[in-house]
Design goal:
415 residues, alpha/beta, Rossmann fold, Nuclear Transport Factor 2, Chain: A, nine-stranded mixed β-sheet, four-stranded antiparallel β-sheet, 27% helix
Length: 415
């Protein structure tokens, strides 16, 4: 792997000899795949035998090999999410600090890993606003949120500054900001091609602008979780110091275990608690995270979750998931149920008949093929399931069944 010379010179000095050698060795090794189960859909099935527990996240595991997730119906049913192990550290942070229902914002959320983790980790009664400024990526985010099925999530498509117009004040804001991507070099060769010291400086300035734009939307005493997938101190420690000195925050620690091999601050003369994951040292890709509290006294949620639900439609909303079951779509005189309804946790089991599919049938369904359902299957709209987990709807006509799986969700890989 050919690394940029500027990156080698800076990062080797930053890491030190031993860490740098371990990092170089890791770049030539295959990353270990990790997954996190959806606590509302996972029934302790033995899906991945011999998986190893990720210690800083509930119901998360390293796999001994990477299966073909695209062809696994349980992945599409939202039973689990494929997520890089370092980002799973967010689960540990949230469970350590958040003990009551909150209004939370994931500001740069696509493709949805940290948002789905947040919704699982936050206390019951919380609401999550999951935002993605890029329209194309926002639709990917929406799909992943819908498959997880939790109703108390809003998916939005806004710039950080837009939230100043909503009068929403958040108890927790996650800013997983766009960065130079040094921590992704092993997974994404394009990240190496796009890296430059100029881009590092550009990202640092952009990150500060994002932080300044969203800071007024964090309530006094609220938590801001800052993270990147890069190594350099300009985008990491120096930005955390900026939040403290220019915006008004204190840095919070979380207790970690030595065997996790998480690295702290690498900024000379600055030893505040921050958390850095380095391939070859931790079993993960690269990530940096810091937890900050806005100065002031926290006395409970600043605004009610009901208020957010009422006002959501004035905020360029892509989709609303906060009022229970997603709505049907009307086509002509007929109301057509949606895959989002079948996947929702709030849909009652007797709302529609259910038909269990074999693995081959489930894969054909996700491929958006039409086929005949088993004899005796009720006519009309039915939810099709795999291992009792809903996948979506078909309309059974008897001699054939129309496939209602969303076109933009259909898998294109052959099986």
């Amino acid at each position: 792997m050919q690394l940029p010379q500027d990156f080698i010179e800076y990062t080797s000095a930053l890491f030190g000899v031993e860490r740098w050698q371990l990092f170089l060795q890791a770049l030539n090794q295959m990353p270990v795949t990790s997954i996190r189960f959806n606590p509302w859909k996972y029934n302790q099935e033995n899906i991945f035998p011999d998986a190893e527990v990720v210690p800083w996240c509930r119901q998360a595991y390293w796999l001994n090999e990477r299966p073909n997730f695209t062809l696994d119906p349980l992945f599409h049913a939202g039973v689990y999410y494929v997520q890089e192990a370092s980002s799973l550290f967010l689960d540990y942070v949230l469970r350590y600090y958040v003990k009551m229902p909150v209004l939370a914002l994931d500001l740069c959320a696509a493709p949805g890993g940290k948002s789905t983790l947040m919704r699982a980790a936050l206390p019951q009664g919380s609401m999550l606003v999951s935002n993605e400024p890029d329209r194309r990526r926002a639709n990917i985010l929406l799909e992943n949120i819908l498959k997880q099925g939790h109703p108390d999530v809003l998916v939005t498509h806004n710039l950080p500054y837009d939230y100043n117009k909503t009068n929403w004040i958040f108890d927790i804001i996650l800013t997983d900001v766009p960065c130079s991507g040094e921590g992704l070099f092993r997974k994404d060769k394009d990240a190496i091609k796009e890296w430059s010291s100029q881009n590092v400086n550009y990202c640092c300035k952009r990150q500060r602008k994002i932080l300044q734009d969203i800071w007024p939307c964090l309530r006094e005493g609220g938590l801001l979780i800052y993270s990147t997938c890069t190594f350099n101190t300009h985008e990491n420690e120096e930005n955390v110091r900026f939040i403290v000195e220019e915006l008004g925050a204190e840095i919070l620690p979380v207790p970690i275990k030595p065997e996790w091999k998480i690295v702290g601050s690498l900024l000379g003369g600055w030893s505040c608690p921050v958390y850095r994951f380095i391939p070859g040292i931790t079993q993960s890709e690269g990530l940096f995270m810091a937890i900050l509290r806005k100065k002031g006294e926290y006395s409970g949620p600043a605004i009610s979750l009901d208020y957010v639900r009422r006002k959501a439609k004035s905020n360029k909303l892509i989709h609303l998931l906060s009022d229970g079951i997603p709505v049907e779509e009307q086509k002509g005189k007929e109301n057509i149920p949606t895959a989002a309804q079948a996947l929702s946790l709030n849909l009652t089991k007797d709302a529609y008949p259910r038909v269990e599919l074999t693995l081959e049938q489930a894969q054909r369904y996700l491929h958006r093929e039409s086929f005949t359902l088993p004899a005796g299957a009720p006519k009309g709209f039915v939810i099709v399931t795999y291992q009792n987990h809903p996948l979506g709807f078909m309309k059974n006509l008897g001699d054939r069944a129309n496939n209602l799986y969303p076109k933009n969700w259909a898998i294109r890989q052959n099986f």
